[in-house]
Amino acid sequence: MSIDNAIHKLSTVLGEGLSLSKSELEAHGASETYFPLAAPDAVAYPTCTEEVSEILSICSEEACPVIGYGAGTSLEGQSQAPRGGIAVDFSKMTRIRQLSQEDMIAVVEPGLTREALGEELRATGLFFPVDPGANATLGGMAATRASGTTAVRYGTMRENITGLEVVLADGRVIQTGTMARKSAAGYDLTSLFIGSEGTLGLITALTLRLRGQPEAITSAICAFPDVRSAVACVIDTIQLDLAMARIEFVDTATACAFNEMAGADMPACPHLLVEFHGSETGVQEMAEMFGDIAADHGGSGFEWAARREDRDALWKMRHNAYWSILQSRPGKTALVTDVCVPISRLAEAVDAAIADIETAGLFGPILGHVGDGNFHAILMIDPDNPDELAAAKSAAESMVSRALDMGGTATGEHGIGMGKLHYMEREHGAAWPLMGDIKNALDPKGILNPGKLVAQD
Amino acid sequence: MSIDNAIHKLSTVLGEGLSLSKSELEAHGASETYFPLAAPDAVAYPTCTEEVSEILSICSEEACPVIGYGAGTSLEGQSQAPRGGIAVDFSKMTRIRQLSQEDMIAVVEPGLTREALGEELRATGLFFPVDPGANATLGGMAATRASGTTAVRYGTMRENITGLEVVLADGRVIQTGTMARKSAAGYDLTSLFIGSEGTLGLITALTLRLRGQPEAITSAICAFPDVRSAVACVIDTIQLDLAMARIEFVDTATACAFNEMAGADMPACPHLLVEFHGSETGVQEMAEMFGDIAADHGGSGFEWAARREDRDALWKMRHNAYWSILQSRPGKTALVTDVCVPISRLAEAVDAAIADIETAGLFGPILGHVGDGNFHAILMIDPDNPDELAAAKSAAESMVSRALDMGGTATGEHGIGMGKLHYMEREHGAAWPLMGDIKNALDPKGILNPGKLVAQD
After folding, report:
1. Do B221 and B318 fall into the same domain?
2. Looking at CA atoms only, how far is residue A76 from chain B in angstroms?
3. Tens-place pLDDT, residues A20-46
4. Element holding A377 (H helix, E strand)
5. Is residue A450 part of a domain?
6. The model's pTM
7. Does residue A112 belong to the interface with chain B, where contact is any CB pair within 8 Å?
8. Residue A60 within a domain
């Protein structure tokens, strides 16, 4: 049993579909954030479920690590290969296998990116709402239980997948869930694989729940005097049950980065970016109600963007925030935090995070999905400066520790990977060993993405 | 190791909280539907999580079966005790442990009923949307992954619980999820326990996601010439992304039962019952749009109910449909089907079900949550007539078989229990053994609700 044996067998099966090229190994072992290179020993490019099944059968026989690879945009080292093995790159599995407009579902392969899906759906009157910042693959989004700016209205990947095709550690192919909208037929295996980061199986198809494109959309930016006012506005808005599709927070540092890198013209203060979906009169009415709430909390400088190009520009700026901030500090890399807290504690958590960043002496803009209580600090560090990495880790620990004390979580949407493994015992307490039990039951040899998410005996 | 030893130890620990009374054993072994009596050997009434933990520790030592019991309203025999053992009745655990209006969450004990929760929340401006027909307990609703008339808008129990407190088979107490709205921190244990029907652990607290009471609500009944027209109306309405809170179907037989038993005055044809939530102008606009769509499909006889008492009467009639139908045939019992199919196949599935019922020579009204593709046939049978039970089972098998062929599920919301266990292998295929693996990992002695939902080695 060895990785070398696995590579030998795989090259027979996959031929050109297995690469040992040094540049490809390094590309698949790199991280979007601060983790050092951890390259696999080979990269497989399956074209169908049967090939994924063969790859896992062989790797199971040879006890060879297997790491699923989508777009490589995860932030906690999920797609890296710290124990070597085979990266399974899904870039040749990008088909839409089925699209049913009446049922409002699409069955897609894991390598399809969310932007490519959006293009395919544009003419149908339907859309898929989940939108992490990166142009991630849908398989990767499912594996990390991703969300984004629209979760406040449409939910995360958990709420938008009705079934999965999964290849298990030993090569068996299973189907979870159905094409129906709901089911009470036994254990919710679909949810078990969503967010399992490739440690329980490799997802080879996803049944996605689509939504009808709203008749009207309007977006706005609004400035607030401080964090507390902006968050109070969010709480009031949610309680009124306004059908917000997005309600995003950016702090002063992020607003300044937008001005500097994306040509924005925002005052140097915290802002909310909001969007409403509905009928023409509905969004008009909601916009007015939101305007009143915002004004009550000192909101000012409203700019409503009803035209599609203005809205697209606004949300493109928001989605590119991470890269704008990276580009504003050439040569630096980032450690990105991702805590999520009960909304009643959000202002306190953000204020304290800003103080943590000041104490650490770092540049660290904050932005987040405040309707969910989820925010990110993008802590900029010099990758060759161990003191900066230590300071960033210390600030991040402080934010996580506070979030857990508040009844929240270490990660709202980025997942665990290698970067947050050390928080799991504290967050889950007595439930933590249960995750190991499940891992042992489904992947007894521990070949699936070892060293990530879960501890295994 | 024995049930008798367990009872002896439990009586020491629980005192008056353990009952051996024949009438209580029979009450806890009865079924809401056609299953014969299957009584436990004792009924425990724990008052706190610690007592549940002690019960499970003892029953684990003694390999004694343990069956969670809420309101006893499940339809597939989930709360019965075919292998004897201890029924754990949660009627003394009904507290709201925490209610946070700002966070829009409530932490409740499993014995609280959905109507009692509704009463507690009435003054807060918040509500909990999931509404199965029965006044079930929230613990039971979580255990069966229940839904109801509002799932089309608000989701099922899966989408409305952010965390659980669970006592495992060996008595360990765990907490899944957090008080935050979302999390990507490892395996989704919350979803694993939701719908597990007490076979993986006993739920002792639930963190529920609450919603803001809408500013305005309006409901309506509308008659249609046939099933196909009514379903076509539903599909068009969903695709327009109207914020329907409810869209329910009743067939001709159900409409007649409403007339006979609930004093309604409905024409003898299929109907849709709908409800919209939103602002005053929003619901007005949606009602008009829905009226236009319904008219396109031959809908007529619209009655809008904007007054609270009229709406309450309408939905009370809908929620009581099962009992109205039962009462219309004194001395009979019911076998209730629960298939859920992709909406594009719904009209075909309902028409075929009506034909199945005619072939079987049974009285079997049909009604359902058509926005989800989920419908029920209430097959009325004489409990002492084996031919009628056989005919009903055969009709139900035919409906399930068709639903599975259509890419649907044997159960949209009632769960598996004993009644649908034989469908599991066909519905899940290669995924079916995985459920047994998970059961073995979490309940190796098989003490938790044995004989239900899952096959165990």
Report:
1. yes
2. 12
3. 999 999 999 999 899 999 999 999 999
4. strand A374-381
5. no
6. 0.97
7. no
8. yes
Chain B partners of A289 at a C-beta cutoff of 8 Å? Answer: 279
- Kindly state whether residue B357 falls inside one of the protein's structural domains: yes
How far apart CA A59 and CA A53 sit, in angstroms, is 10
DSSP one-letter code for B144: T
Q: Which residue range forms the structural domain that includes residue B248?
A: 216-322
Candidates B159, B173, B435; nearest CB to A430 = B173
Which of the four pLDDT bands, split at 50, 70 and 90, describes residue B402? very high
Closest CA to B273 of B244, B296, B293, B298: B244
Q: Find chain A residues with C-beta within 8 A of B409's C-beta.
A: 178, 180, 182-185
| ipTM of the complex as predicted | 0.96
Is residue A440 included in any domain, yes or no? no
Nearest to B453 by CA among B412, B431, B422: B422
Q: CA A62 → CA A69, A85, B54, distances in Å?
A: 20, 10, 45
Among B183, B193, B340, which would you mutate to test the A interface (most chain A Cβ atoms within 10 Å of its Cβ)? B183
Q: Are A275 and A217 in contact (CB under 8 A)?
A: yes
Query: Residues A353-364, buried b or exposed e (16+ Cβ, 10 A)?
Result: bbebbeebebbb
Q: Which two tokens stand for residue A74?
A: 């995860």
Q: Is A217 on the interface with B (CB under 8 A)?
A: no
Cα–Cα distance for residue pair A156/A140, rounded to 1 Å? 13
Q: d(Cα A399, Cα A348) in Å, to the nearest integer? A: 11
Instruction: From A375, A386, A388, A387, select the one nearest A336 (Cα to Cα).
Output: A375
Q: In chain A, which stretches have pLDDT less than 50?
A: none
Same domain flag for B198 and B299:
no
> In this complex, do A212 and B285 lie within 8 Å of one another by their Cβ atoms?
no
Domain count, chain B: 4
Encoded tokens for A67:
């790491």
Instruction: Name the domain boundary from B91, B115, B150.
Output: B91
DSSP element (H, E) containing B235: helix B227-239
CA distance B383 to B109: 35
Residue among B433, B423, B419 at smallest CA distance from B197: B419
Q: What are the φ/ψ torsions at residue A268 (nearest 5 degrees)?
A: -80, 75
Q: Which residue, A91, A110, A125, sits at the end of a domain?
A: A91
